[in-house]
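Box S1 | Example of a co-folding query
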Amino acid sequence: MVKVITIDGPAGAGKSTVAKAVAERLKFSYLDTGAMYRALTLKAMQNQVDLEDESQLVDLAGKTRIDLEYTSGGVKVLLDGQDVSQDIRSIDVTNNTFYIARAPRVRELMVKWQQAIGAEKSIVTEGRDQGTVVFPQAAYKFYLDADVQERCKRRIEELQAAGKDVDAKKLTEELKQRDQNDLTRSAGPLKKADDACFIDSTYLSVDDVVEKIIAYL
Ligand code: C5P
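Box S1 (continued) | Returned holo structure for cytidine-5'-monophosphate
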């Protein structure tokens, strides 16, 4: 029987790193649902689709194929067969995901795609709505959070390690704005499921969080 473990939480809480590590320990697959929202955002931008027009976004989603391949180096994101793993991490894509994420009919499609993946194999899936909307019956649910200053610091360090120039003040504002958008949209908002285990990672290392999750399981 396939099993689903969900990890939700805001940007920079450490979900991706933790979810990947837990998946590896359990020999489960890892599902990065944010990468799906990012890939569709990139395609909409490339095709100059009006991001405010939900019908156009739904149309575009219907003509789109997103595949996630897991490699030892991370996740390879294929958008209609093209590797867009790097492109979807740009600041413009990051800030524009808001339009895709707030569109209820686009979310419905995303939810179906994600549920189809979870029906096929055991996964550790991370996002904003995994424990609440996509997999309400998941075997185990976690909500990972951290103090906003700490989350910004982690994002800045991550970008700097990737050799990118970072405007710390701007990034902090953008991350706070993204939190606000994720928390307040009506469709699939960022929310802790009632039956999720809450972990505050502010003072914890990635290994500490992984061990906590494994112990809980
Ligand atoms: O997790 P990541 O930062 O890559 O997600 C990018 C954006 O995609 C988030 O800010 C959020 O708006 C959206 N998202 C979402 N639902 C998910 C995963 C991501 O709305 N399950």
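The pocket of cytidine-5'-monophosphate is lined by residues 11, 33-34, 37-38, 97, 101, 127-129, 178, 182, 188 (CB under 6 Å). The chain has one domain: 4-211.
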